[in-house]
Amino acid sequence: MCSQKQIDELSRIRGQLLIQMQELGKKDLNCVGCAAPCCTFHHNSMRITLTEGIVLVNYLHSQAIDLTDIAEKCHATIQEYRLDKELFIKSGVRLRRHYTCFFFTNRELGCSIPAEYKPLGCLAFNPTEPSGKGQTCRSMSYPEFCDGEKLEIPQMLLKVLQNFSGVL
User: Fold this and answer.
1) 167 or 157, which is more confident?
2) How many CB atoms lie within 10 A of CB 96?
3) Alpha carbon of 43 to those of 6, 35, 36, 98, 135: distances in Å?
4) pLDDT value at position 142?
5) Closest Cα to residue 56, out of 46, 45, 42, 41?
């Protein structure tokens, strides 16, 4: 489904983003004290690649997280936010859909996924002002990681889970 080269490239880009996040943290530009609107339907339209999905599912499996439960959460999120209904804003351009990520724990620093496994877009989305409480966040630029289509997290995880064998 994906090559070791793709996984290595994803890790390289993720490492660059983590370093940028550490530098921002030294300037008090971090998610501490934020209610995380970026993870909720208010702002979240995160889409991931197949490789990001595979790495994330392998992480969940390595933590003995019930993948059946993950699939059920994917289905529920897709249904609640109608992510299975494609809307186009112009010929061939799909409307990005907002949804609350089910990895969001509704607490400060509320993602249940460690930074080493988060989607690149999640890592790149950071505050531009100290104590902005999620209202001043923007995406940092980062090298494009492209391994085909991008789908909303629940849709891509379901796609990966359909072919999951427990190893990369």
Assistant:
1) 157
2) 14
3) 28, 12, 9, 6, 10
4) 79
5) 46
Query: Which residues have CB under 8 Å from 166's CB, separation 6+?
Result: 61
* 0.85 exceeded by pTM: yes
Task: Please name the residue that has the structure tokens 């859909």.
Answer: 97
Measure the CA–CA gap between 71 and 28, rounded to whole angstroms. 37
pLDDT band for position 168 (cuts 50, 70, 90): very low
User: Is the distance from CB of 113 to CB of 53 less than 8 angstroms?
Assistant: no
Contact 120, 142 (CB under 8 A): yes
Q: Which residue has the tokens 């996040």?
A: 21
Note whether 145 and 135 are within 8 A (CB): no
Query: Which residue shows structure tokens 């907002």?
Result: 98
Residue 138 phi, psi dihedral angles, 5° rounding: -145, 160
